[in-house]
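fold-stage: in
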Amino acid sequence: MSKHILIIGTGSAGKRHAMNLNALGCTLSCVDPRRDRLDTAANEGMNLKAGFTSMEEAFAGGERFDAVVVASPPSFHVDQAIAALRRGLPVLLEKPVSPRLTSTLELQKVVHNTGIPLLLGYTWRWWPPLLRVKERIDQQAIGKLIYVKFTMAAHLADWHPWERYQDFFMASKTLGGGALLDESHWLDLMLWFFGMPAKLFGKVEKISGLEIETDDNVDLLVYYDNGLRVSLHLDLYARPHEKSIQFSGENGTLIWEPNQIKIGRKMDPDWEIEAFSYDRNDMFISVAKEFLNILSGASVPTCTIDDGARVLNLVEAVRKSGIEEKVVKLDLLK
């Protein structure tokens, strides 16, 4: 029987989830305060049953929903997810959980108390080449790790060419935009690979000429008790765009780029290359399939509210470090 999914937010992320769930046979209804976005969603060939301008209207209308996807700006995530969970509806929640740790912990408590599943959309965890990287690292393919460098650099004006970047939620502090929050994917991946670090030093800044009120530059140096050092750079101003992770170990270097893994073991750049041909939407399809499995009774194996809380713990530590200009110990924030 077709599942009826309520999509909250029909911007870029919401439409992607809607299209993928529709392709997997779901019936969809959408919530967005902008009627023009609802009209666009209705005209894009999706199996759209109804459109609403608020969650209250959706829940008061007599429709029966099987689950909710929360794909609104981050400042709305917690209230909307809690509203769904308290109605017994499983939630697929876009990252980050919230702009703030306090509200993240509030949602975490509701998830644990209700027992209703929540799947968190840190989608790079579903990217097959990164799963392969994790396997190689866990196998110590380049020996004990010494240093890892994460880089995410992409000019904000290129993200949504169909709209002014100044009007995108990423430009707004109130809505929860900015490099640190939106690109917390990379904090999540660091935790996925290595767990919670001991301490960090970070700086969160606005340094470019972008017409935004949010941060566009983040630099971190992260310390693990086992001696591993990690650096992480995020920015919203660079061209060409770059997404990469470099792992340096005692027996060589592994470099991940979205559809390529390179391993070098010699002084010269003589790389062992493993190439892939995945499309970006493939990881979102995998998220949708896992969510439908959860609706059929499966657990939440890949990314949980607890994972999201750990990311916000790091976010708070980075903010604290930047403001106080000092190293912050993570145990102080637990």
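fold-stage: in (second)
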Amino acid sequence: MRSIFAIFLLLTISQGIAAQNERKAIRQGIKAYDQGDFSEAEVQFRKAGDMEGPSFEADFNTGAALYGQEKYQETVKQYESLVQQSSDPEELSKVWHNMGNSLLEASQYQASIEAYKNSLRLNPEDLDTKYNLAYARKKLQEQQQQQNQNQDQQNQDQQDKQQQNQDQQQQQDQQAQNQDQQQPQEQQQQNQDQQQQDQQAQNQDQQQPQEQQAKPMEISKEDAERMLSAIQQQEKDVKEKVDKQKAVASKGKTEKDW
């Protein structure tokens, strides 16, 4: 995009002191503008505009100083206020041109296109305005394409999210169904295991009396030795008693009865 127009009208200088002060402020504003000090240029142009009421030159150049400070919305408002201040086609075409530039910088492409069209209606041969109009249309097309891409991406993201939610829901439903199917099987297995344990316990209860009846009484080695020693002592006592009886009987037979 080419540079913004900043016109500096050379008006007839009146003899009044106020008019001389206004021209001095405008000249100082032009100097500051040329030096790139747009803030100081704005101050001087506004000062000039306040001296003798509305001044198209001072107000127009104030808009140029605002544009230099990248205050695009303020620039648009400044030029909108100038549309009713002049009936000169050349001046108004420059107002619409600069307004289009400000709107273009603010990414308001459709509004900038309309401003350039208004400028060309007043000055159809202005090549700068034609160039800027074509540029604004290109930027509007790119903006619309980007918006469409963003919308498509948002739609795709939304569809992906919905599909993800559906997949998660299906997975949860399948897990719940598997659990419902698995629980009866687990319960049945638990019942079978419990029945098997009960049967084993019952078999053990029936087997214990049989084992107790079939199993002979067991004694310790010490008890066996004591029992054997007692039997041997008893036999010895019986033998000794029998021997004594035999000895007494034998003695009675050998003695004579005189």
